[in-house]
Design goal:
With about 300 residues, the chain is α/β, with parallel strands linked by helices. An 8-stranded parallel sheet has the order 1-10-9-8-7-6-5-4, with helices on one face. It has a two-stranded antiparallel ribbon with strand order 2-3. Helix 8 runs antiparallel to helix 10 and helix 9 packs antiparallel against helix 10. The protein is globular.
Length: about 300
Amino acid sequence: MFEGLCAFPLTPLADNGVDQAALAGLVGRITDAGVKSIGVLGSTGVYPYLSRNERHEALEAAVASAGEASVMCGIGAVRTRDVIANAEDAQEAGASALLLAPVSYHRLTDNEVYGLYRDVASASSVPVLVYDTPGTTGFSFTDELLERIARLPRIGGIKVPPPPAGTTASRLAELRGIFSPAQSIGISGDWEAAEALLAGYGVWHSVIAGVFPRYALELADAAMAGNAGTARETSRKSDPIWALFKTHGSLRVVAAIAEELGITGAHGLPRPLQGLDEEARSEVRASLELSGLDG
């Protein structure tokens, strides 16, 4: 599951928990498009805001609707005890891999983060993917720490944010010196996906694929095949959407897109998160028209 496109759907919410029917519809939409890897309860899936029971509801709906696609599940939490409990739940439900970010309130030290991955990897029977997302966790991995973590058993690789402009290829070379060829190096940040895949990153962990899976798969397939012109042109179609991702955050934008297209009802982001206001929603509608993406 650590190759090509991995689609990350929203976790639609209802008054009494997860809207399992809506989530099943999102996952079915992804698999119908031919996507073979799905990431549930990632940042787009608002995992830090969900109870253990809500996470279980989401994973149960996703696995049941995924067919032959592999499902990776986010398990991050503030306490290691809870992370391990989430990992156990995910494996029992049929997750093929686990996605772990170092979630915290008090800023973590490198030794504490190493201990987190050591403890979770030891308790897991499926691959654990390191989730490097300093924009949300506030934690920045050093290469020295990554080298320690990469040597742990069952570490399947890493999901990284977009590197600074002009360093996509050089950062990949550095990461390849840290992780083994058997470990995956994937990227998030949809606007950088074409360049990253063309440079040799193995996976695109995609937010837009949660609502436009056929479009995302077209982009990923072109880039993985080395068709640079097609991949870049396909990505440029979504420049208006990428701009909104950078301004408002991909979660709020993709939640608004799903509502605008009728893919979900009112997404109901978990408070204190709030959806876009009407002015921003008008920008979303305009971006969809400019991009030509219509579902």
